[in-house]
Every structure is written in C-alpha cells, then in structure tokens.
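Dear support,

We are seeing what looks like truncated structure output for some complexes. This example has two components. We would appreciate it if you could run it in full and send us the complete token output so we can diff it against ours.
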Amino acid sequence: MSAIPSSPLKAEVKKLNFYYNLVQALNDVNLPIAEKRITALIGPSGCGKTTYLRCFNRMHDLYPGNRYEGEIILYPDQLNIISPKVDPIEVRMRISMVFQKPNPFPKTVFENVAYGLRVRGEARRNLLEEKVEKALKQAALWEEVKDRIHDLAFNLSGGQQQRLCIARALATNPEILLFDEPTSALDPTATSKIEELIMQLKKEVTIIIVTHNMQQAARVSDYTAFMYLGEIIEFDKTDKVFTHPSIRLTEEYITGRFG
Amino acid sequence: MPTDNDKNIQEIRKKIALNKLRDHLFWIIGLLSTLIGFVLLFTLIIDLFIDGFPRLGWQFFTSYPSRFPEKAGILSAWVGTILVMIVTAATAVPLGIAAGIYLEEYGKKNWLTHLIEINMNNLAGVPSIVYGLLALGLFVYFLKFGESILTGGLTLGLLILPMVVIATRESIRAIPNSIREASYALGATKWQTIKDHVLPYSFGGILTGVIIGLSRAIGETAPIITVGALTFIAFLPSSLITSEFPFLSFKWLMDPFTVMPIQMFNWISRPQTAFHINAAAAGIVLLLMTLFMNGFAIYLRYRFRKRIKW
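Here is the complete output from our reference environment:
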C-alpha cells in the first residue's frame, strides 16, 4: 500500500478476507477510499474486483455460505459495515450500487427513481416529484425523459436505462456510489456519456468503480487499485499507476501483456 | 471431362435432396399427428353441440332436476359449481401463492425443502379419487363438515393446491435475479422486494396457473362423488346475502350440493335418451365455462406480460 490519499477518507478497508463457502476470493486486502474522489478497481477477469465491490453494500449477504473477515470502516462514524452486528439494509441505504447490465424495474421512469425513497417510507407526492427530478437531472437524463416520465422504463435505450439506474441510486443521497462495470453492456457513445457523468458526480459523492476497461479507469479515476488473484497488487494515484507502475505485474497488465 | 470439384458438388446435391426428403417426411408425420388429435376433439364437440344445443334455453338454466327430462334443468348444478369454485379458489389461491413464495424466496435450499419440492411435484399427479378419499376421512368424518359445499370446495382446493404452488414458483423463478438485486441494493427488505417486485411481475403467470387449476377443478367428478355430493338436489343453498346485519351469510357453506359434472353423470346413466340430450346440453355449458376461464387466463397473461420485458 504505497500511497495514502491526501484528501480525507470516506472508507477504509482493513485486512479484508472473503470466502464463498470454502473458496477464498479475497486475500487480506486493504484499501483507502478517498472522499469525493473516484477509486477504480482494475484487473483481469476472475481477479475478485466485483466480489470486492459487492462487499461494500453487503450484497453477498443475499446468498448463503458467504463469509467476511476483517473490516471496512465507513467514516465519519467509523462503522465497520461488514460486521455481522451491522444490518446490511442500513449499509445499503447509505451505499448505493449501479450494476453491470442496466436493470430498471418494469415500472415507469418515475417509479424507478422513486423506489429507494418509497422503501424509506416516503409517500408525499410533491417531495417525491422534487427528488425524482433532481436525481434525473444529476444523472443527465432529465432533458431526455421529462415528457415521458410516466412511460415504462423499458422504452428507453440501453444507455438511458443505465443513466436511469444511476438516477435511481442517487435519489436517496448515498454516501458512496458503487459502479460494477457500468458500461460493459453499452455502445461507445452511451459509454462516453456515462463516463462524463461519473466524473461530474464526484463533486457530490464518493465513487468506487470496477472496470475491465483500462482506458476507462485511466480516464475517469483519481486512484486505481490493480487486483490479481484476490489480492491488491498495486494501489496509487491513477496517473502514477498508468505511467510509472512500481510493480512489474501491474505494468504487464496495463500494457496488455496478459489479462 | 468432369473434374473432382463437379463430382463433389453432385454428391452434396444428392445429400441435400435426401435430407430434404426426410424433412418433408417429418412434416407430414407431424401434421397427421396434429390432425388426429384436433379432428377427434372437434368431432366430439360438434357432436355434443348437435345433441345438446336445441335443449339450451332459459328453462334449462332455471329449473331443478326432474323426473321428466323436458322439465329438468341445471339450476342447482351451476349454482353449486360456482359456490364450490368460490370455496376452492378462496382456499387454494392464498395458500398456494404463500407456499410458492416461501419455497422460492425464503426457504433455505436443504434436504427438507428438497423433499417438499419432490412431494409437491408428485402431488400434482395424484389421481383425483385419492384426494376424494383423503377428504372423506378428513373433512367429512374427522372435522365433521358433512357432505357440504365447504367439503367439496376444500377437496378441490386440495386437489389444485400443488398446481398453484408450481405455477407460482415457476413465475417467480422467471424473474431475473438482477431485478431482486436492484431492489435489495436500494435498501429494500425481503418482504418489500416480494411485495413491490416479485409478486407484481409474476402475477400474470400465477393467475394463469390459478385459472388453469380452477378449470381442471370445475370438471372433476370423482372426488366430489366420494365426499358425497348428491345427484338430485331440488333446492338452492342458503342465500349469500341476508336482509339483516351483517348482510352476509355463510350458512350456504354447510348446505348439501351438486355440481355440473355430477348432474351430467346422473343424466347419462339413465336409460331414456331425452336425459342424454340434457347431459349433452349440460356438457356444452361446462365446456363453455372452461373455455371462458381459459380465455380469461390467456387474456390476463397477455396483459401482464405486455408491460414486462427482461
């Protein structure tokens, strides 16, 4: 762990181990997450980057046989979010996620964005409308959908659906936003829109992004962690990782010699 | 002089011709098999209509059974069928859907749920008369519900319960996991996810299963005879609505009853041909009831699936 970010930390991973039943998928990983910065996780398929990301909102708790060890400390209240004593629902209310494939609910655009608020018991119509509009604007989707906000979300294009999913995740003012390869199912135009959006969003929210597209990590992120076989090989400022990697394996990966 | 290449092409053409011949052969076999089923069924239905259609009329629907075929009708039978179906739906639907949700969303995958699953699939194939025997012992003798609408409805409810459970599980399973994860990731609890997503998105499929189950139950005869439905009922069950508070009465649940297939069975087993015509007419009514229910199921499936694309 070479570089400690200069900006304040939003979260800190300490000696995290993760097991799918008996198979260890993450091995003693550490990672500082800088507040209102973008941290990218890169690495070849199967290196554990998605597994890592899904620890942050306790997605693994949905399936039996999964086990965490270690700590993910969330600041400022220093809560260990992977502790069995912490309710995963509380964690998910503070940390939102955008998935690999756009997964809008088969409901209207409005109901998709409002769902997180409804889960929190919000039923006041004017407040919901206000927050939905705000989230859609944040996700740079408002102008495109404002006239069909009560249409089904499936009528949107793939890129619009993914931005809708981002709006849905933003509507509840999360402290951290997780992106799991958010553009892998999209065409280049939609991809660049999403990338632009992610860079905009870091003004308001801490972001962790998993990507197998190295150019994407280089373009959008402030910090990059290179993962291999369930371990973090190198972590540093993004430009440092991509221009002067200190470890040979990192260099081989980013220059395309394996992975 | 033909080259090697020409020869090869000739051979390939021969093979294609042979494959196409096989293709046509299967097409003919398939068509014939389909036609046999279709023509037989169609003939039966036409025959039923020719025999029974002239008998259908206001009098037929509003008369009780009688010794005189031309005075007899199906009033007690169709009222009985509808009331029994109400009891059947009211028991099998909530129980079946709840059990399906439990097994699919809550139940941990262990040997016990596995055992329940195997049993459930087998139960759907148990002969209906066996359900009749079970119901006779449980509802008539043990719980003392008598030979009532309640007993009949519960028996058929038991019969279609596995079908409702299976339909529920299959429709729930068709919902991609990514949708559940999207809901959980927003902080929803299991029940919120089920109530807001799993159930609404699988509702069309569940409803289709329920209606197909009910349209099977509506034609069942054996278990209803076993629990002692009468074949000659010349009165209606007590009214559902009363003039005094609370305006609803459940006395009808304990009344004796008959249903359409039993009325048909009764008429067909008599020697006079005039009664056979009555049976054909009752058959038409039963057939239309089933057709209507299946049509409704198709409509619902279409309506609910139209909004949902995965």
